Amino acid sequence: MNKLSSRQRKILLLLHLIFASIMLGGQAVFVILALTASVTDSVSVLQACYTIMHLLADSSVRASTIGTTVTGILLSVLTSWGLFRHHWLIAKEALTLLTIGIGLIGIYRWTLRGVELTGLAGSNDWDTAGFAVNHAWLWTGIALQTASLIAMFVLSVWKPGGQRRIYKRPIKEAKAR
């Protein structure tokens, strides 16, 4: 497979960073909305928080997760980084799988369930059966998702662990060159 030119690599990296930034910004919005939902006494504010979170889960979270994953894979495959050459890349790939599961499946379902439960007739949504449990699951997903995204950013900057042993050249071969 052909490697990317410097210009192509920079464009792909820029797209990757844009998608990753959208993901992290979306997480900040989720934290704010979940905090607001946790402390509000207003049914309409609670409904609005869950409606907005579900809209984000169904749109920008999906698009940014897919965009980041696709551009990340392309950057790995089409450059010298490789998919499994470095420990930090393998860690990012594992965190990506966790992020995909939490974001595309978990947060989507928990926000949808919250929208459904806040729409039920009743004086207090927190008394609705299952609402508090669903909210706790949502918070758990948001916390794990946020921690995963921050860890991926840290891994991208510091690149700890270096190259895997099977990809390093033997010392004798390296000295001969």
How would you explain this protein's 3D organization?
The two termini are 26 Å apart. The mean pLDDT is 91. The chain has helices at 6-39, 43-58, 60-78, 87-118, 131-158, 171-176. The protein has one domain. It has six helices and no strands. By secondary structure, the protein is an all-alpha fold.
Topology:
Elements: H1 6-39, H2 43-58, H3 60-78, H4 87-118, H5 131-158, H6 171-176
Helix pairs in contact: 1-2, 1-3, 1-5, 2-4, 3-4, 4-5
Quick overview:
The protein is an all-alpha fold.
Protein traits:
177 residues, 6 helices, transmembrane, membrane, 76% helix, elongated, transmembrane helix, mainly alpha
**Share of helical residues:** over 70%
Q: Name the beta content range.
A: under 5%
Mind describing the biggest β-sheet? none
Order of helices and strands: HHHHHH
Rg over alpha carbons: 21 Å
Form type: elongated
Give the beta-strand count: 0
In the residues, how many domains can be counted? 1
Query: Which residue ranges are poorly predicted, with pLDDT under 50 across at least 5 consecutive positions?
Result: none
Total helical elements: 6
The end-to-end distance, rounded to whole angstroms, is 26 Å
Subunit organisation of the chains: single chain
Mean of residue pLDDT values = 91
The secondary-structure class comes to mainly alpha
